[in-house]
Amino acid sequence: MVTADQLAALARIALGHVEREYPHIESLRLQSAADLLAPSQLHPIFYGSYDWHSCVHSYWLLARIRRLQPTLPEAAQIDALFDRHLTPAKVAQECAFFQRQGNGSFERPYGWAWLLKLHAELLASEAPWATALQPLADELAHRLTAYLPRLSAPIRSGAHNNTAFALLLAVDYAQTCGDTALLALIENRARDFYGQDRACQAWEPGGEDFLSPALQEAALMQRLLPLAEFHHWLDAFLPQLAQGEPAQLLTPAHSRDRSDGKLAHLDGLNLSRAWCLQALAAGQPEAVRTRLETSAEAHLNVSLPHLSGDYMGEHWLATFALLALSSRA
Of 203, 113, 208, 119, nearest to 163 (Cα)? Predict the structure, then answer.
């Protein structure tokens, strides 16, 4: 179970970088030299945390902690941060960035999905800032709705453009907001993309992965399918799971250089795997449940000690730690 002390520690990590403008990495299509602006001019809310999407999901982490433990000393700092930045004027500037020529695919789909999950969290907690953020959530939900029918096949990478991960986050938004059209689209596309997948070989991880394509897909289908249908699908997708196969799917990865931003991804992989493994353990026969939970704990034990200390991991790993710790609870 996630403790108040753990939540406070995660909050302090995020509060330490959401307003840290540099170092910064920007994926930007330049139309002219006039587009070369400071991060805080391009993104008046989400300019910190090294990149836009990490800043967005760090705001989600803070919103989630605020809801789980509103009496933490850090809650006042979170409220003050949100008061400073989640304002209608700044949200309008964030929307304007997406509407500029050439920015239509900026942060697609990873950043889009995290923004929707942030908005869902604010709505679920009845936070006052949800109304201000609504126009940006509407903008990105519209973009996701237009994008999914045009995607001819799922993106099965272990990094930001993984389709299953984005859909999994977007489900939270659609359910919280009562967006039945988006939810139906996500379910239909998930069935198209993954419904016939069988005997997954799980040739992973890649050396720069922070997501497990196999486990993200399974976690998504668990959320969307009726229980009996999901168990039938999972038995076909990972038929040797009860025997601990594929073994590489249940074995933690080890980063050899946490100062390298890409190689540090493997700590994120361990945390995101733990999140999925714990979710998948629910409803499984005891032997399978124990195997999955044991693997999840092993993944956590490898990477929880490395949430801070080097900015290449510190600017984002706490979010995935909260996903994993909350799932364990």
Answer: 113
Choose among 1, 7, 128, 3: nearest CA to 74: 7
Which candidate, 324, 64, 325, places its Cα nearest to that of 210?
324
pTM over 0.70: yes
pLDDT confidence bin for 329, thresholds 50/70/90: low
CB neighbour burial string for 15-46, b if at least 16 within 10 angstroms, e if fewer: bbbbebeeebeeeeeeeeeeeeeebeebbbbb
Mean pLDDT within 243-269: 97
58, 112 in Cβ contact below 8 A?
A: no
Report the amino acid identity of residue 162. N
Question: Among 157, 159, 169, 77, which residue's Cα sits nearest to residue 115?
Answer: 169
Tokens 């991060």 correspond to what residue?
Answer: 39
Ordered alpha helix ranges (H), 238-316:
265-281, 286-303, 311-314
Place of tokens 């946490």: 258
Tell me how crowded residue 297 is: count the other CB atoms within 10 A of its CB: 16
CB atoms within 10 A of CB 193: 22
Question: Closest by alpha carbon to 147, among 116, 177, 178?
Answer: 116
* 3-state SS track over 114-153: HHHHHHHHHHHCCCCCHHHHHHHHHHHHHHHHHHHHHCCC
